Amino acid sequence: MTLIVTRALCGNFFDISGIAAHAADIEGKARYIENGMMLLNGGMIVWLGHREEGERILADNDCTIPLDDYSDKLIIPGFIDTHIHYPQTEMIAAFGEQLLEWLDNYTFPTEAQYHDIEYAQKMSKFFIQQLLNNGTTTALVFGTVHPQSVDALFTVAAALNMRLIAGKVMMDKHAPAALLETPEQSDRETRALIARWHNHQRLSYALTPRFVPTSSPELLEKVRLIKQDYPDIYLQTHLSENREEISWVKSLYPQHERYLDVYHHHQLTGSRCVFAHCLHLEPEEWDCLSDTDSSIAFCPTSNLFLGSGLFDINATWQKKIRLGMGTDVGAGTTFNMLQTLAEAYKVGQLQHYRLSAFEAFYHATLGGAHALHLDDKIGNFDIGKEADLVVLDPGASALQQLRTANSKTLAEKLFVLMTLGDDRNIYRTLVDGKVVYQRDN
């Protein structure tokens, strides 16, 4: 065979080879190659297999290329974060509130700073570096109401050719005056951002009405019209995170029986629509999400931190709803997907749902890509996929080394990694085939 190869990686490779129809299906799709080799052409995967065969291919093609040897490491697809707020990075771990009070006391004052483009640029760089330090190579991101917050974020991501989806928050009521806009202003500024950034390099735009309480019917109608004009655009928002929030929505929109009905009435459900949280859904809402092919972002650390409730993982399988993991910084307490998966396991335990390591890593990689309709581009190591990946060090601490040494199966080793793991386990992060983060030692 003849290949154009510009880089080779060696190590132990793990991914999930295909979309799963149910949780029990995932283990059969797990792919593990011990002492393997991956060949890249720029930012694309062109071959994956055993190292001995890869070396023969390189010799047959007379290739002299850089070889990254991670023989004692585990290489997996880059993590995919389907819900996160970059302006809230600096207020992570804010004490003592539930959702609505937390927004008033912490979130809105912090987001007010992002009218300043220099401030937004500084925080965008910090935020992107935090993602990369934690092995996250794709994210669906909230900005603030200020268009410059999104310009700054996309500029940093574009310089790395990073795959990122983001949008400016849209809200015209029930927030401080400095963070409000008119529906007409929101429409105008959003359309300008879409023209600048949507489908530029590996960037995509997401319409971002914060949630129903900050959205008038007039604003939601503007969102509907933009979505209609751009069929491939994303939409991200919040749904049924907190019981007081749900009661508030019902008081604001008494003509709608359920929270989701407000979005659905404005045609804001469907493919590429991602709803964060979904903790207190009524049966009809589960059915609507399923029938419209909408996606859910599961955010365990923020759900626990704000005392919002427990997400029903099993219902997504029963209803065949696309599901991804979200760190939800800053209500979420970590950028790290390993720690996020550990909390997801505990959420499952409290509901007698056994979240296996294979399923957890699926949701954080290929499942997340499926939720974002990107599974043809990222999420596993299939030939032709984009070369976004993370190199994990399973023994980053003495305790991890001890526990991994007496783990007998791949499933057990992965479970130990996600349960005891954190940012120390991120050895390298590659975006578009290039190393964008490397641990100091």
Brief characterization of the structure:
The protein is an alpha/beta fold and 441 residues long.
What does this structure look like?
By secondary structure, this protein is α/β, with parallel strands linked by helices. Helices cover 39% and strands 23% of the residues. It has helices at residues 26-29, 51-60, 99-111, 117-133, 147-160, 183-197, 217-229, 243-252, 259-265, 283-291, 300-305, 313-319, 337-349, 357-364, 366-371, 398-405, 410-420; strands at 7-16, 30-41, 44-50, 67-77, 79-85, 136-142, 163-167, 169-170, 203-209, 234-239, 273-277, 295-298, 322-325, 389-392, 426-431, 434-438. The strands form two sheets. Strands 5, 6, 7, 8, 9, 10, 11, 12 and 13 form a nine-stranded parallel beta sheet that branches. The chain has a seven-stranded mixed beta sheet with strand order 3-2-1-4-14-15-16. Helix 6 packs parallel to helix 7 (217-229) and helix 13 crosses helix 17. The longest helix is centred in the N-terminal third of the chain and has 17 residues, at 117-133. It is globular. The two termini are 38 Å apart. The model has no long low-confidence stretch (mean pLDDT 97).
Main attributes of the structure:
23% strand; alpha/beta; 9-stranded parallel β-sheet; 17 helices; 7-stranded mixed β-sheet
Question: Secondary-structure blueprint of this entry?
Answer:
Layout: E1 7-16, H1 26-29, E2 30-41, E3 44-50, H2 51-60, E4 67-77, E5 79-85, H3 99-111, H4 117-133, E6 136-142, H5 147-160, E7 163-167, E8 169-170, H6 183-197, E9 203-209, H7 217-229, E10 234-239, H8 243-252, H9 259-265, E11 273-277, H10 283-291, E12 295-298, H11 300-305, H12 313-319, E13 322-325, H13 337-349, H14 357-364, H15 366-371, E14 389-392, H16 398-405, H17 410-420, E15 426-431, E16 434-438
Parallel strand pairs: 1-4, 5-6, 6-7, 7-9, 8-9, 9-10, 10-11, 11-12, 12-13
Antiparallel strand pairs: 1-2, 2-3, 4-14, 14-15, 15-16
Helix pairs in contact: 4-5, 5-6, 6-7, 13-17
